[in-house]
């Protein structure tokens, strides 16, 4: 099946293909429970964290306390990498979206490795490029798309990045909840639930074995362009 949409800037950065073996000896492995805060926005950036397992939600907080999710970071992703570039504070908050294990590395030790190890430097820059693409995508969606269009757009991204094709369908191999999807597209869980229900009613989307399946990629793409009547 030819993809109608080949955008790999999914806000789910899962199972990233980076080799961090030279970093493992620089820090300590720490387990976290679900919904546990790792660091707060604007707090001192004294450590860089690598995700060994689990999912972490990155978010921005306004002065009034409103939150906007940026991305879900999975295995081999980085948190707090702003400290590598002499930024004194974290530019976002981070909280676990599941049980997780992180490698916590003092920023000065990671910075030295970044400066002397080409593989580490290349991985950090690739990761930053991915986050930059996600932020650009967020800006475009919030500027021009309705909530339903943003949901469809994100499903297309997930299908492109983590999709497995078979029998004319595309299985999204990353599991996610309605609340997680609501967080990253900037809408309510109810809106996500209603949109997903409508996509299933129109046989554009289905769910098999806990995974979402894009049944009709052309119609999902059309829903991104024209919106979805709920």
TrEMBL record:
Keywords: Activator, DNA-binding, Transcription, Transcription regulation. This is Crp/Fnr family transcriptional regulator. InterPro entries: cNMP-bd_dom, cNMP-bd_dom_sf, Env_Response_Regulators, HTH_CRP, RmlC-like_jellyroll, WH_DNA-bd_sf. It comes from the Bacteria. Pfam families: cNMP_binding, HTH_Crp_2. Residues 145-218 form the HTH crp-type domain. Residues 32-112 form the Cyclic nucleotide-binding domain. Gene3D superfamilies: Jelly Rolls (2.60.120.10).
């Amino acid at each position: 099946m030819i993809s109608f949409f080949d955008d790999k800037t999914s806000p789910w950065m899962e199972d990233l293909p980076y080799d961090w073996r030279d970093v493992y000896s620089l820090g300590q492995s720490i387990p976290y429970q679900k919904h546990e805060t790792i660091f707060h926005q604007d707090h001192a950036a004294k450590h860089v964290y690598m995700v060994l397992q689990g999912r972490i939600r990155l978010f921005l907080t306004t002065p009034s306390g409103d939150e906007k999710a940026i991305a879900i970071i999975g295995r081999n992703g980085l948190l707090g990498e702003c400290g590598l570039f002499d930024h004194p504070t974290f530019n976002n908050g981070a909280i676990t979206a599941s049980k997780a294990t992180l490698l916590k590395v003092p920023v000065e030790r990671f910075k030295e490795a970044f400066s002397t190890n080409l593989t580490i430097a290349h991985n950090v820059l690739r990761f930053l490029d991915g986050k930059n693409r996600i932020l650009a995508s967020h800006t475009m969606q919030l500027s021009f798309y309705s909530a339903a269009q943003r949901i469809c757009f994100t499903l297309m991204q997930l299908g492109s990045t983590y999709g497995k094709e078979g029998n004319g369908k595309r299985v999204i191999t990353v599991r996610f909840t309605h609340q997680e999807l609501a967080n990253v597209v900037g809408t309510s869980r109810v809106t996500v639930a209603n949109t997903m229900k409508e996509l299933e009613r129109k046989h554009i989307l289905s769910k098999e074995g806990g995974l979402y399946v894009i049944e009709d990629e052309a119609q999902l793409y059309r829903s991104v362009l024209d919106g979805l009547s709920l």
